Amino acid sequence: MSDSVGDEATRIFAEHRELLFSIVYNLLGTVADTEDVLQDTWLAWVPRNRPGAAAITSPRAYLVRIAVNNALARRAVLARRRETYVGPWLPEPLVSDTPEVRDSADPADPALRAESVSMAMLVVLETLSPLERAVFVLHDVFGYPHAEIGEILGRETTAIRQLAHRARAHVHARRPRYQADPRTQRAVTERFLAAQVGGDVNALLELLAPDVTFWSDGGGKSRAALRPIQGADKIARLITSPVVTGVPELGIEHRWVGGDPSAVILSGRSLFAVVVLDIDPDTEKVRGIYAVRNPEKLTHIDA
């Protein structure tokens, strides 16, 4: 392949890389696997740019199709990996210093990053079948029409519509359509952390919904609960215990995960955890706490 052809192939792939990363991350929930899928997509893309290869009329459509189908194949590997995972599994948090736009005039715009999907939504997406998740992500998150999704997945449009209906009903039954305002999320997150660090159980109980759930992902590599914990009183007493709050040289940075205000917890200069709260937009109560402590899921985060 000549340098000019190779440069053009690289330029086109780079132009669509953010979109591909965002779609695949929403299908897999892990950064390393997403990068692997993008590498496989690149390897499939390069031969299609050699002299004599059939012309591709829509590079974006081709790259998305290859990336999505590679991601679906990778889901089977992830499913086997999860069978031996210790404790609750949470997606790897994509942390940024500034908020990402949740909505876009063009949801398929490459500028829309994976951060636009919340941690809470990613957890719900884990309960879908791989095909349902692919259809939901492509249609509801990125705005692809059913017919185009059918072309990507090699299925009839009517089948895609049925998958979309089932996936949407499943998601909406477990996840309200509206999220709290980011300013409210930031304020509640700050109050929550202040109460936790200060050991103020009563202040926490004022913030927590009665049926709040706490997910703690240590992956067997860091201390964490081996199953989700429910109930405000139980959680408030657990997270104010010295075992949880006794972090040496505790530091807290307020950053963003999935378009939501979050907290990066430091122990000295080392990453200790990423904490994201799911807040009810009507009551402004915390209905979900997600704490990622598995060090392997924090390696890509800049402290």
Brief summary:
By secondary structure, the protein is α+β, with helices and mostly antiparallel strands.
Can you give a write-up of this model?
Residues 120-170 form the RNA polymerase sigma factor 70 region 4 type domain. Belongs to the sigma-70 factor family. ECF subfamily. Keywords: DNA-binding, Sigma factor, Transcription, Transcription regulation. The chain is of the alpha+beta class and 303 residues long. Helix content is 48%, strand content 16%. The chain has a seven-stranded mixed beta sheet. Helix 9 crosses helix 10 (232-239). The longest helix is centred in the first third of the chain and has 26 residues, at 3-28. It is globular.
